[in-house]
Write a structure and sequence with these properties.
Helix content: 40-55%
Number of strands: 7
Number of domains: 1
Strand content: 15-25%
Shape: globular
Radius of gyration: 17 Å
Order of helices and strands: EHHEHHEHEHEEHEHH
CATH class: Alpha Beta
Distance between the termini: 45 Å
CATH superfamily: Spore Coat Polysaccharide Biosynthesis Protein SpsA, Chain A
Strand order of the largest sheet: 3-2-1-4-6-5-7
CATH architecture: Alpha-Beta Complex
Largest sheet: 7 strands, mixed
Amino acid sequence: MNESNVICVFASYPAPGKVGEGLDQYLGNKQASFLARAFLLDTISTCLKVPRSEIYIAHHPAIARAEFEDVLYLFAAEERNKKIAKLAESINFIPQAEGDVGQRLLNTSRYIFENGAVKAIFVGSDSPLLQSLVLRATFRLLSDHQVVLGPTFEGTYYLIGMNEHYPELFREIDWNGSGVYRETVARLSGNGLKWQELELSYVVTGPEELEQLYADIDNLRLTGENEIAYHTEKCLQNLEK
């Protein structure tokens, strides 16, 4: 990696029964797995649309690289934009370390910055409506800010961007609670870091967010936006059949 902008998708393999209690119970293990995989495909598509950036998938579990390579094969076959599909060949893989979410983020961030990143954005794979323009805007903001955060209604964040490795943002945070965003903001203020907040959004972890997702995709299509959440929409249509 030369000095570069990096986007890292922090992803757990969507095996049946491992997606999350909310969607597993609502849809059933197999269907929830299909939907989570579609979320990941859309996240990959969005990231690849950001020019002059390197894309990484930080995969969990660490031994699941082959499974994620299969996901990229599926992406290349199903992605409607064939130029974007071709770019998937350049995606890199990083195994997530053991430990809680904070420890895994810390280790991944350290690796990326030690290997030449000048700006890095970390996103999950459960925000299929994330737009490439948000990622591009984050990189621009990181020219004047040290950290950029995208808050969620659930009290977490769907995106964190940094212009260097800040381990204090990942240590001693209650990652299982609803105060992740609040604790992170307190840590930013306590360390004197200049930061910027993005607009509020949501991650899809249960039936309420899924209903919102249906409505938001419909609204996007009415406005003529047909690229965002293409894989997710296709999966939802299949689930309805």
